[in-house]
Amino acid sequence: MTSSQNTRASRPGPADGGTTRMPDPPDLSTDELAQLRFALLPDTTIARLETPGLPRSAGKTAAERACCLLGAANLVQAGALSAAYRLFTPAQLHINANQLPRTSNRRTQALAHAIAGLTAAQSATRMDVREETVIQYCRTARRRLGAKSPGQAGYAAVLAGWVPLSAIRPGFPDLTLAELEARHTPAPAGSSEDTPTGPPGSCPAPLPQEGPMTAAARQPHQAAATANESAS
User: Fold this and answer.
1) Mean pLDDT calculated for residue range 20-46
2) Residue 7 is assigned to a structural domain of this protein
3) If you count Cβ atoms within 10 Å of the first and of the last residue's Cβ in the chain, which end, N or C, has fewer?
4) How far is the C-alpha of 144 from the C-alpha of 131, rounded, in Å?
């Protein structure tokens, strides 16, 4: 058994007290979500095109504002939190979910430290390398993910399953995002529980919920059924 398999086998599950549910996401307004997305997108020009209506002054404090909205230590962690809470789709952050690689090495470890909120100096101490090496590791990991900004890197790393959600915050489930989705997505009727839910890095669709439009659409049918019962 490899070291990665040993780590995976030691993760706590429901039977031994490990949580399998994410805490509620922060209650952000439409404007706050726009500011957060502005900060996570890689290029200022793209960010302005994607978030119309924000004042020009918003760009000057976008990173700090994004971290404050999510209680994040840095933009990498803010991106990771956005993935964990499903605040944006990959397309909204210009991330190709179908081309995210799987990996496990020192570069992933360096990025995982950043996702946990550590500085490069703190990561260097934990990894017993120079600070410049940590920075280079993170840059290489970012390129592997196809990310062009720290926020994109954090989001893509969580989406690709490079780190478990507990790497972001200790109270989060000790599962990857895909594993968490698989646990809370019911299997279709007649399918096996072992049926794969999708390729690594895929973005499972949220569970269907009835909204106001669905309920309204049923009202004419309910009224017709009531009329038929009365007539009979």
Assistant:
1) 86
2) no
3) C
4) 20
Question: What does pTM read for this prediction?
Answer: 0.70
| Segment 143-179, tens digit of pLDDT | 999 999 999 999 999 999 999 999 999 999 999 999 9
Closest among 178, 65, 176, 170 to 116, alpha carbons compared: 170
Angle, in degrees to the nearest 10, between helices 131-145 and 106-115: 90
Q: Tokens 């949580």 appear where?
A: 19
Task: Please name the amino acid found at residue 163.
Answer: V
Structural domain span for residue 75:
27-183
At 205, the amino acid letter reads A
Is 198 among the domain residues?
no
Three-state secondary-structure class, residue 148:
coil
Q: What's the CA gap between 41 and 58, in Å, rounded?
A: 14
Residues in the chain, total = 232
Any idea of the CA torsion for 169, 170, 174, 180, to the nearest 10 degrees? -40
C-alpha to C-alpha distances, 117 to 120, 160, 169, nearest whole angstrom: 10, 19, 9
Instruction: Confirm whether 14 is domain-assigned.
Output: no
Examine residue 150 and state whether it is found in any structural domain, yes or no.
yes
Structure tokens at 78: 């803010």
How many structural domains comprise the chain? 1
